[in-house]
Amino acid sequence: MEHIFKPGKKGMPVFVLLHGTGGDERDLLPLAEMLDSEYGVLSVRGKEPENGMNRFFRRTGMGQYDLENLDFRGRELLDFIKEQAEKNDFDVDDAIFVGFSNGSNIAINMLLRDDANFKRAILFAPLYSIELKDNKDLSGLDVFITMGKNDPMASLADNNTVVELFKSRGSRVKEYWVNGHELTGEAVMAAKDWLHQ
């Protein structure tokens, strides 16, 4: 997979950066720098093309996901992250997902997998309105989620679905509201404060 790895200060966690539709592995590097410049970075490019744009998994329409492809790509990405942890000598359980939009959605898929034990995630503008049958215990997970009050891609009901997905499985959730489907400086600063509490 196309990616960038930058080691952080010894013993510090690693951010796993997951871009939005049309982005690449360079998009969220400034965001990681703002959140904590001492953390390591593993930034990955999505492998699923859509009209010339990079995505992490295929969709059939706005908010309509190809669930078989989502499952395949989520498995592939999680395995890649584990390989990188072994290769670059960091604890995969201490890695922190930082995603925007499509990147947040693939992060949710990985967080819900039985063989994933991540402790923290920062999800900007997620949308995950999928009927789930799992009852995975996520009580060891802290999640920071930004949602848009006027997001054209995600309704308030969609936003509440994501929050409930985590809360119903025991996660501690910090909600932060913005206006649209966006990544604002204020939201990044709020995520930074949350990260260092």
From TrEMBL:
<feature type="domain" description="Phospholipase/carboxylesterase/thioesterase">
    <location>
        <begin position="77"/>
        <end position="195"/>
    </location>
</feature>
<dbReference type="InterPro" id="IPR003140">
    <property type="entry name" value="PLipase/COase/thioEstase"/>
</dbReference>
<keyword id="KW-0378">Hydrolase</keyword>
<protein>
    <submittedName>
        <fullName>Hydrolase MhqD</fullName>
    </submittedName>
</protein>
<dbReference type="InterPro" id="IPR029058">
    <property type="entry name" value="AB_hydrolase_fold"/>
</dbReference>
<dbReference type="GO" id="GO:0016787">
    <property type="term" value="F:hydrolase activity"/>
</dbReference>
<dbReference type="Pfam" id="PF02230">
    <property type="entry name" value="Abhydrolase_2"/>
</dbReference>
